[in-house]
Amino acid sequence: MSSQWADEPYSLISTDPFSKDPSHAAYYVATQMALAHNGILRGLNSIYLQATHIPRKDRDAVRDFLTYCQCWCKSMHHHHDAEESNFFPSIERISNVQGIMERNIEQHRAFTPGFELFQEYSQTCLPENYDGQKIRSLIEDFAEPLTRHLHDEIETLRALDKYDSGRVRQAYQRLEKSLMATDNYRIAPLVFGTADRSFEGGMHDFPSVPFFVPYIIHYLFARQYRGAWRYNPCTIWRDRRELAFTSVSAMP
């Protein structure tokens, strides 16, 4: 494995300070959310690292990469929409503290303008007009508020340990259910392909699914946008692999 991989340039979230503490569901929820956020970060890093190395004359590679960017954006929307419509209101009811999650919502709003410009570019750019440096520039415009939010939200969740453990767990289980109601063709292959099962020594089983689920994703759902998943940093079975494009010079 080369030294350049999807755990940089935007840093992942360590679960070591809290993931082994079974005393309250807040620590379980924080762990699961950190692992989900790390998938978002690996996807972003994969896009950033590969953007300028895709040969522009290879229109299929460019088209697939733009599709990959679109899928990452759709996954981001799905994740944060589910939080705001489902999970955050539940936490307000459990805590009886109005606005307890407001800071997280404000952080969503902070990265939204730059994120939407990136999404628009991925949707409207023609392969012949592709500019990898433009992709990087757009990411740099929203990455700082996004990554700050992804890290900060974990601390918010850890702090829920003062509330009823069972109700916190139930709220997260409802969120998980809403997250599973997704576009299996565009999001499921991305979620599994950005989950590294060797992370932190392989102590996490995330996403935790029956053994046959990766086979269904690989042989059924991933087929429609097969070319896009070459940009994933992991296989559908969550094994790390070399990034597809990190050493090929971008065509002028």
**Which radius of gyration do the C-alpha atoms yield?**
18 Å
Distance between the termini: 28 Å
Chain-averaged pLDDT: 95
What are the low-pLDDT stretches, counting only 5+ consecutive residues below 50?
248-252
- Give the percentage of residues in beta strands: under 5%
Query: How many β strands by DSSP?
Result: 0
Count helical runs. 7
Shape: globular
User: What is the SS-derived class?
Assistant: mainly alpha
Report on the architecture of this protein:
With 252 residues, the protein is an all-alpha fold. The chain has seven helices and no strands. The chain has helices at residues 25-50, 59-95, 102-124, 132-158, 165-180, 188-193, 213-219. Helix 1 packs parallel to helix 5 (165-180) and helix 2 runs antiparallel to helix 3. Residues 248-252 have low confidence and may be disordered.
Show the helix and strand layout.
Layout: H1 25-50, H2 59-95, H3 102-124, H4 132-158, H5 165-180, H6 188-193, H7 213-219
Helix pairs in contact: 1-2, 1-4, 1-5, 2-3, 2-5, 3-4
Any descriptors?
mainly alpha, 252 residues
Compact summary:
56% of the residues lie in helices and 0% in strands. The chain is built from seven helices and no strands.
